[in-house]
Structure formats: structure tokens, C-alpha cells
Automatic annotation (TrEMBL):
PROSITE patterns xrefs: ABC_TM1
Protein name as catalogued: Carbohydrate ABC transporter membrane protein 1 (CUT1 family)
Originating organism: Tepidamorphus gemmatus
Stretches that traverse the bilayer: 12-36, 70-90, 97-123, 160-183, 208-225, 256-278
Residues covered by the ABC transmembrane type-1 domain: 66-277
Keyword field contains Transmembrane: yes
Biological process per Gene Ontology, one example term: transmembrane transport
Amino acid sequence: MNKIHDNRAWFLVVPVVALVAFNAVIPLMTVVNYSVQETFGNNVFFFEGVKWFEQVVHSDRFHAALGRQLIFTFTILAIEIPLGVAIALAMPRKGPWVSVCLVLMALPLLIPWNVVGAIWNIFALPDIGLLGRMLNGLGFNYNFTRQPGDAWFTLILMDVWHWTSLVVLLAYAGLIAIPDAYYQAARIDGASRWAVFRYIQLPKMRRVLTIAVLLRFMDSFMIYTEPSVLTGGGPGNSTTLLSIDLVKIALGQFDLGPAAAMSIIYFLIVLLLSWIFYTVMMRNEDRS
């Protein structure tokens, strides 16, 4: 008996293909198109080849923004991952306080990003902000609008406050998924708290921590709204991260060719570093 193929089923995937093309392929192709052309208005374009890519790659401005971006990303990863795991370990596993803790942890994640930037902008103002007045009252010469070090301190503190909750929730999900039999065996063996964490909890959380590291890396590397509202990239260019610099080139200077080339290079850096993170962490998983 011959099997009958009904090709009309392919029409069911047409909406998905159209949606993906509209959301991803067409914008990406538009950026690629701009990255190899120059325009002087009136919708007239001139082919420039890889000129803009060479200009961006050899640009001191791009190198400086990339350096600031790497410092910011690795600093917040070094703080948020261990801090999130520590908070998750301290949270109760059973009882009425579980719901209270989970809701409190989720609250920062529910606040819109531009609101977070505005909140911390007001909170850290040296004259009227609670944080600014408190630090100056303690004898620190704190002013994040004028001093680069204070701007970096405020920016990192804001990101830690906003996004550590995500690490906490993921780590907590990994912890409560560990069967009680592991803890019972550890108690029978007289294992210390550190031994339980080192040989039971940490290996069992490795997959969720991999997700947490990847999510926080990608998000922090592409962050724009919060630092833009908080510092605007200043004072000077001290907190001008890659995303802020890209917007300045694209919308401030209206250099569409260099901005498009920088967007593609930016995307490839995120893709490459994410792949490296994933490969290294999953290789350790295979070894364990």
C-alpha cells in the first residue's frame, strides 16, 4: 500500500517562516547591506566593501568601549554568580517563608529597565539621593555624575541589585531538585557543610549555573537602558559601554555604515564568547 503524502501541510509552517523572516532575517540583512555601503542621503548608496569593518577593528574608540564592556561584564559575573548561589543556599526549602522569599527575589526582575535606571539615578544623587547623602555623610567624596570611579561603583551596584535575583532563582531551582537521599547519605557519612556543597550541591547545580552564566553574560554584554539612564555613558566616556557607543555612532553621528559594521562585529563577539563559555562549562560537566 502506497503512503499518500499531503504537501498542503507545508502551508501550516508558512506563518512561522514569515514571522522569523520579519523579525530576524530581514533586519539582519538590512544591517549587512548598510555595513558595506556609504550613503549621503536621498537614498543613494555607494559600495564600500569591507572598509567600515577595517575602520571599526582598528579604531581606538572601539577598543576602549570593548575594554570597558569586558571589565563591566566580568566584574558583575564575579559578583552576581557567587552571591546568588550564597543567597539560594540560605533560603528555606520548606515552610511559609519559601513563598515570601521567592516573591522578594522576583521583585527586582519585574521593574522595567528604564525605571531601574531612573530609580538609581535619583537614589545615588549626591545632594538629595539616599545613597549619595549617606556615603558623603560617612566621609566619602561621592559624586557619580563627576567622578568616573563613583560612576562605575554605582553602575555595578545597580546591576547587582537588579539581576542577582535571577541567579538566586535559578540556583534555588537547582537546589530543590536534589533528592533528599543525597543529604541522608551525607549525614550518615558525617559530611561537613562544605563537603555537602562541594560534592553534592555544586555538581547538581552545574547545569542551571551554566544557564545563569550564559544569560547574565549575554544580557550584561548587551546592556543599554540602565547605564544610559543612570550615567548616559559619562562622566566623559568613562561608562560608555559598547551598546551606548553604538547608539551614539548610529543615531548621534548618523554614520550608518560604521554603525552597521560595528553591530555585526558586536554580534559576533557575543556569539563567540557565549560559545566559549558554553564549551568550557559543558566540558567540565562531561569530566565530572
